[in-house]
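REVIEWER CHECKLIST
Item 1: Sequence provided? yes
Item 2: Single chain? yes
Item 3: Sequence as submitted:
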Amino acid sequence: MVVKRLLNCTASDFAQFGRAELVASIAASAGRTILAENDVALDPMTKNITNAEYVAAFGTDLILLNLFDFGTRAIKGLPASDDPIRLLKKLTGRPIGVNLEPVDPDATLSETTKAISSGRIASATNLKLASTLGFDFICLTGNPSTGVSNREITAAVRLAKRHFNGMIIAGKMHGAGVSEPVIDHQIASDYIAAGADVILIPVAGTIPGLSELEMSEMVHFVHEQDRLVMGAIGTTQEGADVGTIRALALTSKRAGCDIHHIGDGGFSGHADPENILQLSIAVRGKRHTFHRMALSVER
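Item 4: Structure as written out by the authors:
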């Protein structure tokens, strides 16, 4: 499929994208796509704005909502709306995704876990609602201490292929309270076989013991299977100094990641805005970063 590379896409371009176009546009951008996660349940840094608008302002291409509950559909800072996701897309001009969590009641746990609401679980009901509400992509993953397992993520990918019409990202950024490897070749193979479009791999240096060589080999393996990779900074290092972010960004770029993720572990439900900016500059330079920051949502 021949599409406009995401680097140059505007809000009107994104509005025309389906799953296939979004995947192809990311692939065409040669490892220069930035994704920022944000917590919709925390109060933003200032009033009368959402965390999604904050991360968009600092150069994010794709926005991932964390802790969004399909039962309440509440997003701090967003005006009351019967159609909150399409309103958020209008305000940011970006594709919007959501985390859904495949909790495994039979997992071998490594820590005390906490129950989450049914509105956050990767169920058929929530996957159907994700399509209805207008989400462009989902990320099947686990927040800390939720008991999400790789086995259940794989099952959730299969479920998502039946009930969700957007791009599917699959993988864990950390253990999520389960005693098992976070990622290896077999886990990635299972996600791919189930139908995931993008495999989440933690950036080397964000989880213990994952070397840059091992990360690079897994990225190469996933690319050989004609899938994309998202390198994730999701162990609260998104709240570190800009030097740490620069080092992790270049690690992710050297490994060959197509999407560079930065988590929501800041003080107000998203990474330090300066760290989002630094991630973008390190990955694609000031010209593309400033272009994304300045581009009007009316275009």
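Item 5: Key structural point noted by reviewer: DSSP finds ten helices and eight strands in the chain.
Item 6: Recommendation: ____
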